[in-house]
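User: Second chain of the day. Same drill as before.
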Amino acid sequence: MKRPLILCAALALVSAAPAHAADGVSLVLSPSLVRFEGRATLYGSVTPAIPGEPVAILEGSVPVWSGVTEVDGSFGTTLTVHRAARYVAVAGVARSAPAAVRVRPVLRAGLRGSRVLGGRLRVSGRVLPHQAGRIVVRSGERAFRARVDRSGRFRITLPTPGPGRVRLQVVLRPARGYVRSSRLLALRVRAPSLGPGSRGAAVTALERRLAALRFTVRGINRLYAGDTFDAVLAFQKVHGLPRTGRVDSGLWRALRAARTPSPRFGGSHVEVYKSRQVAFEVRSGHVVGIAQVSTGATGNTPLGTWRVYRKVTGWDWVLWYPLYFHRGFALHGYPSVPAYPASHGCVRLPMWFAPGFNARWPYGATVRILP
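Assistant: Same format as last time:
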């Protein structure tokens, strides 16, 4: 009795299957670019046009839809798109060409923090889906990469750019299957007026900028002390600005646009400019230090090229750490270094600056006194 039962079951399966199997299957996706969590339609048909043919749509190897064909052999469905993907339709042994969907991610970004020069800004936001690409924040010519977590959230802390109206651009550099997206964050950075005794992050930003331009400061800190005053005065002298030793909005703008000046001569030497009342320390043809000085009140500081012939560590009469270069004329520290020529003929240097300067330049070093 078992053999007739098995035969009946086989006949039932054959009668339930379609009379013909599909030779081919097509698949179309519309639209091919979809916003995150947008809707896309997948549709196609089998050939020959067989009604009731079982069809499955796969993302990779995972089924996302299954059904049967209509009377004309067509099929289709609409899906919510959460990520970039490639789909194929399978009918029996027939397999369609892949249909790819690209995704336009959702990018949100905001800005918090100090808007005073020298402060810190916090850029935060979210990108969906999280695997859509890398987040880069552009500030002027600099670019900072932000880490994106599995929820798509990111946060990065940046130094404030220069003063005035500033734009930060948050850019999604897309992974494969996603499209580029960006957000523009605009802010105004306030640059406070500064002078002796000022403290804070703006002073630190000022000293860093001066040091980057090779104007010598004793150290980078939060205090506008004598060294900061001298460096600001040297910058004003070099750039033909009013010699106040104080910082206002105009000086901030000048600092932002400035470049390190070039020396008159190549090699390694000291250049003293009587007209500008500054000294350049030059190494291998590059300015490595700039200090404000004060030359002879009567214009008697001798022009020419000289050599250091005597050095003193500490006091030599009223001269602090002098470097003698010609007939008793010296570069030396002195308590008063005004913004104009005021000495008896020597080149006055700030007291804090003189010891290091003396140590850096040996016997025989070249000193050029220029108009």
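The chain has a mean pLDDT of 93.

User: Great, on to the next one.
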